[in-house]
Structure formats: C-alpha cells, structure tokens
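Marked as duplicate of an earlier ticket. Keeping the data here for the record.
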Amino acid sequence: MLEDSSTHSHVAYLTYTLDLVGNLYPLTLCYINLLTHCVTYFHAPMLFCLAIDWIMSQCSSALGIDIGQWKFTDQVYADDAALFTSDAAKWPTALMAFDSAAATMRLHTSWIKTKVQNLGSGPPASSVDVANKRVESGTRFTYLGSDLDCSGYCTPEILRRIGIASAVFGRLDDIWKQSRLSLQTKLRIYTSWAQSSLLHGADTWTIIKADGERLQTFHMQCQRHILDIWWSDFITNSGVKHLLKGTPAHDTMTPFLHRLNHTLAWYHVLAGKESQDDHHALGYVTY
C-alpha cells in the first residue's frame, strides 16, 4: 500500500507540473519521438530549456574557467550556447562532449554556425577540426544580437550600434520635419525607435571614456536635428538640454552612462597581467 500511495503521489505531482507548464504556454507545442510508434506532444519552451540544461550538465566536466573558488562553464540562451575553456587545446574535447550529449536527445550541433574565439587573452584563435568538421575561428562574432570582439573591448559593438541607430534615425527624417507633430511626440518616437536601437544590449557593455563620449555625441546630434538646430545657431549642448527640459528625451544618456560606471572596473581587468585569475575569465570561448 505504501508503494502504491507513493507511486500515485509521484504521478499526481508530474501531472500537476505538466498542467502548470501547459497553462504557462498554451499556444506552443513540440513533439518527442519515443523511438516507437508513439509521438508525444509537450508544451515547448520550458521543456526545451530543461533539455539544454541537462545537455550542459553532461558535458560540464570538459568545460570551465576557474576564477578563485568559482568555475564558469557556459552561457546559454535558448539554443545558443557559449562554452568557456581556459586553453585552446581543450576546444575539440569540449565541442565533442557537447555534441555527444546533444545527440542523446536527437539534437545536433550546427558546425557551420559554430565559431571559436579568444577574448582578450593571448594570441588570436586558430581553427580546429572536430568530428571531421572544420570549426572556423574569428576575431568578431555576433552572439544574441551583439558583436563580441577578440580585443575584449566593446568599442566595435558601440560603433556598430551607433551605425544602426543612425540608419533608423535617418529613415524617420520625414517625421522630424513634420510640423504637425509636437516635440513631445517626436522625442517619444526617437526614444522608442532610434535610442532603443542604439542601446540594445548596453547593460552588458564594458565602456571606456571614449565610448561614453561617442554615445553622448550621437545622442546630442539627434536632438539637435529634431530641434532643427544647426552649428551656425551657436547653441551649446547645455542650451539644448535646457530646451528639452521636461521632455521624454531630457538628458536620458547621462543617467544611463552613470549606471554603467561600475563596468569600468572590467577595463582594468583587461589591462591586467595574463597570470591573474580575473584576466583568464575573459579567455577562450566557443559559440
């Protein structure tokens, strides 16, 4: 009786969990082939994340960068994974361990999309051969919409973001010239379209003084264009901020840069000696 009670309790718990997941994701489904005639349908996002977590747990012994008492093995978002190793010689082993674990769930590594990169530590990465597949190296790689540069600095990504935001701002030029729209409306459009494109992923940036100045300059140029202020008008940046006081775009960049000041500590990490534990935290990464 105790065994039956325990079994029923366990089944009831599983049923409750599946119902909970189903209520969270009512319109998304995936299926799992059970290697028989049966195909079972499950609600997708939660179970997929559990599967990826299990895959990473199976290959974590071949991964990792030790920083003091801590060990960092990977960073995963959905089906995009970044694997950390402290030595380029470990790349083939780490990638094979990952691919073998994924294969148990009928998942396979996309070797064409997989790249190896050295972030701010040692010489540039070299391509490696894994399972008769060539995994190319790169000095820059786009991960989750952001460019990662092998130098470890975020300047290339910030310049790319300024270019993207500039293109968005330019496409809205008819709006900036529209006299029937209020300044408040124009600034809200600027904040939601151009500025959001500029600051995408910015919370992960490691900025230096020159990067902050570039962001401030672009922001001020956009505001001057919206206000139809030209260099010949001899209006200072302080004067522009005064004109925008109380509007949605009033000095929005300065508080943001202040919020990122803590990341400047990472600049000193990059400038440190390669023997330091914190420097190795920015070591070899595979995507």
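See parent ticket for discussion. The longest strand covers residues 80-85.
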